[in-house]
Structure to design on (204 residues):
């Protein structure tokens, strides 16, 4: 099995590309889902650290962490965002590595695609055999963020600017997928890259 990293900017089309690759028989994994499972599970190993950093009002004994309030603080407070990244990153890394080993042992899949918006920022891109970068124009990122996520333009711009510039991500890309325009076009571009991926690993 070959482990492939997939990244791109905020609202660049990563989720759709991942879905298309999953339809082609790839095993897919998302960094955000691993992190959320660790942070919001009732027996989270970092729960007390989060409550200490964010205050007791972030937690309800019956409902658990207030996801909306947590996300809001995380977005607005750079120091708290760095703090969460520091304590969550090692746990996500351990979970990712364990899952990759377990999936590889099944010998079912040719490819495992790991999607993370922060693949470069976290420095883990070197763990993968190939890197796919999904991209679109900033204007389209903004349009998607304001439409899909209902963000105000200044907030959408902050989200985009908080990540590495596209040109930096493309420097490490083995394959690039343009997700601008209709879904059908992005699907076709993804299928083209999937064909190249299979060709490069002699799986055609």
């Amino acid at each position: 099995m070959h482990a492939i990293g997939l990244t791109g900017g905020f609202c660049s089309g990563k989720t759709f590309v991942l879905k298309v690759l999953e339809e082609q028989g790839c095993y897919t994994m998302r960094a955000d889902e691993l992190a959320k499972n660790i942070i919001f599970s009732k027996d989270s190993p970092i729960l007390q650290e989060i409550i200490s950093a964010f205050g007791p009002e972030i937690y309800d004994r019956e409902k658990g962490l207030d996801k909306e309030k947590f996300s809001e603080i995380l977005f607005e407070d750079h120091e708290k965002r760095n703090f969460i990244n520091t304590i969550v990153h090692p746990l996500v890394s351990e979970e990712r590595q364990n899952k990759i080993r377990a999936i590889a042992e099944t010998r079912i899949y040719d490819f495992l695609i790991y999607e993370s918006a922060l693949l470069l920022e976290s420095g883990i891109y070197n763990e993968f055999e190939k890197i796919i970068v999904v991209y679109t124009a900033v204007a389209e990122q903004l349009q998607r963020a304001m439409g899909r996520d209902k963000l105000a333009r200044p907030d959408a711009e902050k989200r985009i600017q908080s990540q590495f510039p596209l040109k930096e991500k493309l420097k490490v890309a083995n394959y690039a997928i343009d997700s601008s325009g209709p879904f059908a076009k992005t699907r076709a571009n993804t299928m083209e890259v999937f064909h190249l991926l299979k060709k490069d690993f002699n799986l055609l």
